TrEMBL record:
Alphabetically ordered keywords of this record: Oxidoreductase
Record bears the keyword Chloroplast: no
Any one GO molecular function term: oxidoreductase activity
InterPro entries to which the protein is assigned, alphabetical: NAD(P)-bd_dom_sf (IPR036291), SDR_fam (IPR002347)
Protein name: NAD(P)-binding protein
Source superkingdom: Eukaryota
Pfam family, one: adh_short
Keyword Oxidoreductase on entry: yes
Protein family according to the UniProt entry: Belongs to the short-chain dehydrogenases/reductases (SDR) family.
Species in which this protein is naturally found: Corynascus novoguineensis
Amino acid sequence: MAFNYKRVLLVGATSGIGAAMADRLVLEGAKVIAVGRRQDRLDAFVQKHGSDKASSVRYDINDTAGMDAFVNGIVTQYPDLDCVFLNSGVQSQVRLSRPEEVDLDAFHREISTNFNRLVDLSIKFLPHLQKKSIPTALVFTGTLLAAVPAVTVPAYSASKAALNVYIMCLRRQNKGSSTKIIEIWPPAVQTELHDYMGHEVGRKVGMPLQDFTDQAWEQLAAGAELVVVGAVPTVEGFAEMVEARRNGFEGLANLMLQHFPL
């Protein structure tokens, strides 16, 4: 099944991969509701594409007290919503070799932003998607580091590994549902995500954003459930490793679900 959804909520749409995918979705014919914290960028997105194709809602995913109001507001205002794209994320370097310098509150906030809040939003939006009589989708932006962690960004790597495990279980337990569960694994991409390295250095790390967007869209349009762009450097047989891991998961899932009615 192709990526043929018509009304897409994109959370984390004000920069980087989210902004690029929001633009691409509009160009491919979807109506996009952009969500983010920066009102000026949300306004610029709507102005760029026109209010007939683009709209926006300012919301910080860490506002857990306001999450139910946000979700209910979206599904009420946009009853034709058929795709929720969860892209928000933060990344920072942590020197675990200097434990006295580790900010534990920041470490846990990073994991909560990248993992807990996306779990919350997916669980809250999923019933609205599943009750529709048309195909719907829930899309997550993950990372290649979910399979092979990067030593300098342990909180980010751990949060994305946890997200991948959650998505695999979510997809398998909802097998046969009208809601497709899609995960995108980018490599390092030239975005604001790496600004902690300094603007001049961080924006040059990884694949050009346009190249990533083109390659990811090709797989999305082809109906892929796991969109993998590139490979982890120095990891021989990365694609084969990912496939073996998925096969192992399916085998164990089939065994365990014999005693766990869905």
